[in-house]
Amino acid sequence: MEKITTTTLASNQEKRNREKLFDLYQKNPLPGEEVTSNSALFLKRQELSKILFFNELYQQIQSIHGIIIEFGCRWGQNLITLNNLRAIYEPYNYNRKILGFDTFEGFKNTDVKDGVDSIIKEGSLGVTGNYEVYLEQLLQVHENECPLSHIEKNKLIKGDAPISLKKYLEDNPQALIAFAWFDFDLYKPTLDCLNLIKPYLTKGAVLGFDELNDPKFPGETLALREFADLNSLKIQRNKFSGMQSYVVMD
Ligand SMILES: C[S@@+](CC[C@H](N)C(=O)[O-])C[C@H]1O[C@@H](n2cnc3c(N)ncnc32)[C@H](O)[C@@H]1O
């Protein structure tokens, strides 16, 4: 198994509890596909909160035309959630593409503005080799359960995001962005992607952030402060979010 650098706020007691959960997961006695159809058995409060957070945000952007982008999708859990929310709230909106940008090789373009935490280094929060191939299959399996599944609506874009986003926007001049979710944890790619998407955002579009006001990852807040006058932004949270926040463009 490759060494994956990751980070957690969990206490030692919580870490032990999660080891126990993983052990129970590995030893689960459920037969065959009963495992995936009972996945809530292993879903912790924290992950459920994130799903409920996205559920609220999805309803916020439902009437806004355009695509959804996750900047920094890693293992892809949010992409799967967004895919399923699309199927629930707007099953026939084949125009609602969902894009996931990631190096699939961990952090790229760290900066002094990202602070001094030991996680801030190139390659942190990587994934296992060729993970994007597996994630593509997983997204397709979920999409197959949705209407109009023959129309491609999900896309993973591998590489340094500012470079691949610039190319995507050049190749897709029709693009409107309804919702951009930022979760690089880093200053430079966040600022570059904010600047690149600015001309593609309309009134009512939502910018979401996983790490604003996070002392461990100051870069995301610094990027937003450079991108916009914070006094002019209403940075909101909803009842399900801890660190997550969002801004509605007006
Ligand atoms: C915190 S993780 C994302 C977690 C994911 N959104 C989730 O909730 O499960 C940060 C991700 O940003 C990616 N990343 C960091 N710098 C990047 C860059 N310059 N271009 C593309 N992806 C980058 C990393 O590879 C990593 O997968």
Write up this protein.
By secondary structure, the chain is of the alpha/beta class. It folds into 2 domains: 11-42; 45-248, Rossmann fold. It has 8 helices and 6 strands, in the order αααβαβαβαβαβαβ. The protein has helices at 12-26, 34-37, 45-61, 77-89, 131-143, 161-171, 187-197, 218-227, and strands at residues 67-71, 98-102, 154-158, 177-182, 201-209, 245-248. Strands 3-2-1-4-5-6 form a 6-stranded mixed beta sheet, with helices on both faces. Helix 5 links the parallel strand 2 and strand 3 (154-158). It starts with 11 loop residues before the first helix and ends with a strand. The model has no long low-confidence stretch (mean pLDDT 96). Bound molecules: S-adenosylmethionine (SAM). S-adenosylmethionine binds at residues 72-75, 77-78, 101-103, 106-109, 125, 160-161, 183-186, 189.
What would the keywords be for this entry?
14% strand, alpha/beta, 250 residues, 2 domains, single chain, binds S-adenosylmethionine, 6-stranded mixed β-sheet, 8 helices
In short:
The protein is an alpha/beta fold. It is built from eight helices and six strands.
Write the layout of secondary structure elements.
Layout: H1 12-26, H2 34-37, H3 45-61, E1 67-71, H4 77-89, E2 98-102, H5 131-143, E3 154-158, H6 161-171, E4 177-182, H7 187-197, E5 201-209, H8 218-227, E6 245-248
Parallel strand pairs: 1-2, 1-4, 2-3, 4-5
Antiparallel strand pairs: 5-6
Helix pairs in contact: 3-4, 4-5, 6-7, 7-8
Protein name: Macrocin-O-methyltransferase (TylF)
